[in-house]
Design a protein that fits this description.
Helix content is about 30%, strand content about 25%. By secondary structure, the protein is α+β, with helices and mostly antiparallel strands.
Length: about 700
């Protein structure tokens, strides 16, 4: 008996909620986009499913999987709307959240601020115990004293508890004892234990990550239960998966237990889609660019793989200043994010110059042209006034835009105060946001060892294709790729994401002193834990594969280098081979190595994954219609080379056949996004409907 035929991807962004419905039998896609409902994101999810079910008969009964990406967790942290949380830690480590790494992100700013800890000092209490760095017990846990500390926290009305003891990653015996104590005294209390959340060295990062997990755990659990109930109430009996920050998908149960792993749930999906296209088309270096209504996210994908980093920050006091946020140490796709979206606000800076972003108008009130009460001009207002957007075809004509209101806003708040022409004002907004993104992109690409003049830029998001040509030109990139349904690229990316889970454990030992049999046992233990986690996704009968890696460093060094371990048995490796791999990778990254310096193992990592359900792309039907039948008309739009408006041919993307080619200047419209192609560029439509744009060479 064949299985159910549909999978639904749902991505909740800051401005819009995107839906893509995939028919696994035919490869057909059905797309829907609506405004996000910040007060309860599940409202938009339910509305989107209802809208799609009206267009696709049998959707509810035939829905096999609902894959969901959400900004709920990160918003709860940013807005400080999590649970009242307490912390139990080893005596002497009460203030580790405020001490951090004792590194100032702005060394010359005496007024530099740091984020307030999620747990205030009065709710951070100490227990008498101590485990040595090798895992041996120096001081046994004083259970009676620990009970008194727990009672004190309960008296303060905590709703969630974090337990993080020093060196518990080597021996969690005391954390487990505290966990059992909480189960006896307060069985309904939400608990996060560091040996489960992050059994990893570095007490500040481990404590910060465990506290963050505890802070959002009750809220996430309630939301996911409510979402599951609302979906079930519609008659759906589908499996519900959540996108992980590391690029995999996992079960609702795992996400509810470890919500810290879904902080970057939404933004990673477009990168995973770009990774899939890169492998499919054999593009060696791809710069994935996803610009929505609030932010722009990008990532360099090399040889079909996006980088994954072990740590990131949230809630930065200075949004783009590294070190000014809360440290979270979980695997996350190596994204670069800047405050540049269609809703980014344009205003006059304190220096009297034009400034665009990082503040955003969001979904409510949104840009002026939305007609929802916005009064500050935004990037979308400028794009509309430049002729790039059609006010009668925004979101396929379901959301008309107010051109005159946008014009008045730009004239009154930008052009007149700056003393510039209206045309200079709207082009300045568009070009400045492109310049901001290009400057950040060049730095990101260079840090990864890439060359912006060699990358293929792939554009996603509602605003991505509008700005992709300008961004690619500033990068000097030779080629631009725009997939079908690019405006909902993140939701489409869910279908290419593997069902996977990442695990890590710290064990510090030098290469010379390491017992490879003991390390193999550690890997096997991590693999068993990964298999148990994946079994919760309802795939107990599917084969699980494992990817191993180790973090190695010079003895005494503060940062590690990650080495893949393709061998299934660590005992088959010899020390010389491990050292050779480390030296080769270190030289590739930094240009040289130090063969006389000893090295040590720090972290042992395993990614457990199930077989991927491949995304079968639907081929365009054979079509011999002339290109002219895809032309919707001609409209004036700004051409920077002429510094004035020029006629742009407007194409209906849905009527472009495989093999069609045309030159810029042109505009290609689909319901969720609009592509702008400048003069000198050539567009080609491939058999799957992808648009390949060859850009003129940058002098």
């Amino acid at each position: 008996m064949p299985g159910k035929r549909y999978r639904l991807g749902c991505d909740i962004g800051g401005t819009f909620t995107d839906f893509v419905l995939l028919d696994d039998r035919t490869g057909a896609l059905h797309v829907h986009k609506c405004l996000t409902t910040p007060q309860d994101p599940s409202d938009a999810v339910e509305a989107g499913i209802r809208a799609l079910s009206e267009r696709v008969p049998g959707l509810v009964e035939e829905l096999d999987e609902l894959i969901h990406g959400t900004t709920l967790v990160i918003n709860a942290i940013l807005e400080r709307k999590g649970a009242r949380t307490g912390l139990l830690t080893t005596r002497g480590f009460r203030d580790v959240l405020e001490l951090g790494r004792e590194i100032r992100y702005a060394p010359y700013d005496v007024m530099a601020e740091f984020p307030e800890p999620l747990v205030p000092r009065r709710r951070r209490l100490e227990v008498d115990e101590r485990v040595r760095s090798d895992g041996s017990v120096l001081r046994p846990l004083d259970v009676a004293q620990a009970r008194r500390a727990l009672d004190e926290l309960l008296a303060q009305g905590i709703e969630s508890l974090a337990i993080c003891l020093i060196n518990s990653f080597e021996n969690p015996v005391h954390e487990r004892a505290l966990q059992r104590l909480v189960g006896e005294v307060a069985p309904d209390l939400s608990v996060s234990v560091s040996c489960d959340v992050l059994p990893q060295i570095r007490e500040y990062e481990r404590t910060s990550t465990t506290v963050t997990n505890a802070y959002v755990k009750p809220l996430t659990g309630r939301y996911l239960r409510r979402l599951a109930d609302r979906v079930a109430a519609l008659g759906c009996r589908s499996k519900l998966f959540i996108m992980l920050s590391s690029g995999g998908i996992t079960s609702v149960e795992t996400a509810a237990e470890s919500p810290v792993r879904i902080i970057e749930s939404g933004p990673t999906a477009a990168v995973i889609a770009g990774q899939y296209w890169g492998r499919r088309f054999g593009v060696p270096e791809m710069f994935c660019f996803d610009m929505g209504g609030t932010t722009a996210k990008s990532c360099l994908i090399q040889n079909g793989r996006a980088g994954v980093v072990p740590t990131f920050e949230v809630g930065r006091v200075q949004r783009f200043q590294r070190g000014s946020g809360l440290s979270i140490q979980v695997p996350v796709v190596d994204l670069m994010e800047i405050g540049a979206g269609g809703g980014s606000i344009a205003r006059i800076s304190r220096l009297g110059t034009l400034q665009v972003g990082p503040e955003s108008s969001g979904a409510l009130p949104g840009p002026i042209c939305y007609g929802r009460g916005g009064v500050e001009p935004c990037v979308t207002d400028a794009d509309l006034l430049l002729g790039y957007l059609d006010e009668r075809y925004f979101l396929g004509g379901t959301m008309p835009l107010d051109r005159e209101a946008a014009r008045r806003g730009v004239e009154d708040r930008i052009a007149k105060p700056l003393g510039v022409t209206f045309l200079q004002a709207i082009w300045g907004i568009h070009d400045l946001i492109n310049e901001t993104m290009a400057a950040a992109a060049k730095t990101h690409i260079a840090e990864k060892g890439g060359n912006p003049r060699l990358v293929t830029v792939v554009a996603f998001g509602g605003a991505g294709p509008v700005h992709a040509y300008g961004l690619a030109r500033k990068l000097g990139a030779p080629r631009l790729l725009v997939p079908p349904n690019a405006g909902v690229g993140s939701a489409l990316g869910f279908f290419t994401a593997p069902r996977a889970f990442d695990l890590v454990r710290s064990h510090k030992v030098s290469l010379e002193a390491a017992d490879f049999a003991e390390l193999e046992g550690m890997f096997r233990e991590l693999e068993r834990a990964g298999a148990r986690t994946l079994a919760q996704s309802g795939a107990a009968d599917e084969p699980v594969t494992f990817e191993r890696s180790i973090d190695v460093r010079f003895v005494g060094q503060g940062a590690e280098t990650t080495l893949p371990v393709p061998e299934p048995d660590f005992t088959r490796l010899d020390r010389a081979a491990v050292r050779r791999r480390f030296d080769e990778e270190y030289t590739r990254l930094y240009g040289r190595t130090y063969p006389e310096a000893a090295v040590e193992f720090i972290h042992f990592r395993v990614r457990a994954r199930l077989p991927e359900r491949l995304l079968e792309m639907q081929r365009l039907p054979a079509d011999s219609r002339p290109l002219e039948q895809a032309v919707k008309g001609v409209r004036p739009a700004y051409a920077p080379g002429r510094r004035d408006f020029a006629p742009h041919t407007v194409y209906d993307r849905y009527r472009l056949g495989a093999g069609a080619t045309f030159d810029g200047p042109a505009i290609v419209e689909e319901r969720e996004s609009t592509l702008v192609v400048g003069e000198g560029a050539r567009v080609r439509v491939d058999e799957f409907g992808f648009l390949w744009i060859d850009l003129p060479e940058v002098p």
